[in-house]
Design goal:
Bound molecules: adenosine-5-diphosphoribose
Order of helices and strands: EHHHHHEHEEEEHEHEEH
Mean pLDDT: 95
Number of strands: 9
CATH architecture of the largest domain: 3-Layer(aba) Sandwich
Number of domains: 2
Structural class: alpha/beta
Helix content: 25-40%
Number of helices: 9
Length: 229
């Protein structure tokens, strides 16, 4: 059985990484448009770099939770039949042991050269960083997909949605496209669809089944079900 799992901020919430649309609607005190758009970066690169530098630095203080661990266990059991597509820019899936992870909104621990397009593994601050180590010319920016930019790896993701038998969404509000549309695409090509989220989401009506609860509880239970056949 081929499975695609789409994850969102909710899967990392129990690790202490804040979500985007809960509570006050602010992301660490900022409206997302203030820090997560190309326009914001053009107008005030310093603020945007410092914002993402703080997010990158905070990764050291968090770790994967039971939901990430369960998905890594599932990969160990079924290998290539599992693909995790994440909207998250943290590295908690990898730190739990998952290797088949597609970061459609980019990664905090990567820097992108705005001149040559080169990517560099990055664990330090980007504010006031030297020019791109590849071309020596361009400014490095966070390698994340901002609003108005095209998500990464869409062709490969669509291919996996077309081919999968089960599509599972974990901890995402279903508010941001194209990820919010994946359930309908997978379903149109014959997949069964399951949502695991704290509360009913905007996307809930599109799923065959929707379970409510914490990812750290729901994901291990679901993985056990899959492994029990
Ligand atoms: N377990 C499961 N779900 C949870 C938990 C939890 N412990 N805590 C919160 N949630 C749910 C919330 O109820 C919400 O529906 O996770 C969802 C998180 O939604 P968002 O904050 O909107 O995050 P996400 O869907 O990942 O956002 C998508 O929007 O700002 C952009 O690029 C950013 O990738 C992000 C995209």
């Amino acid at each position: 059985m081929r499975i695609v799992v789409l994850t969102g901020a909710g899967i990392s919430a129990e690790s202490g990484v804040p979500t985007f649309r809960d509570a006050d609607g602010l992301w660490e005190g900022h409206r997302v448009e203030e820090v997560a758009t190309p326009e914001a970066f053009a107008a005030d690169p310093h603020t945007v770099q410092r914002f993402y530098d703080a997010r990158r630095a905070s990764l050291a203080a968090v770790g994967p939770n039971a939901a990430h661990v369960a998905l890594a266990e599932l990969e160990r059991a079924i290998g290539d039949d599992l693909l995790v597509v994440t909207q998250n820019i943290d590295d908690l899936h990898e730190r739990a042991g998952s290797t088949r992870v597609v970061h459609m909104h980019g990664e905090l621990r990567s820097a992108l050269c705005s001149y040559c397009g080169g990517r560099h593994r990055w664990d330090d601050d980007l504010v006031d960083a030297d020019p791109c180590p590849g071309c020596g010319l361009g400014t490095l920016r966070p390698d994340v997909v901002w609003f108005g930019e095209v998500p990464y790896h869409l062709d490969a993701i669509i291919e996996s949605l077309v081919a999968c038998d089960l599509f599972v969404s974990v901890g995402t509000s279903g508010a941001v496209y194209p990820a919010a549309g994946f359930v309908q695409q997978a379903r149109a090509f014959g997949a069964r669809t399951l949502e695991l989220n704290l509360v009913p989401s905007e996307g809930s009506p599109f799923f065959h089944e929707s379970r409510q609860g914490r990812a750290g509880d729901l994901v291990p239970v679901w993985v056990r079900e899959v492994l029990a056949g």
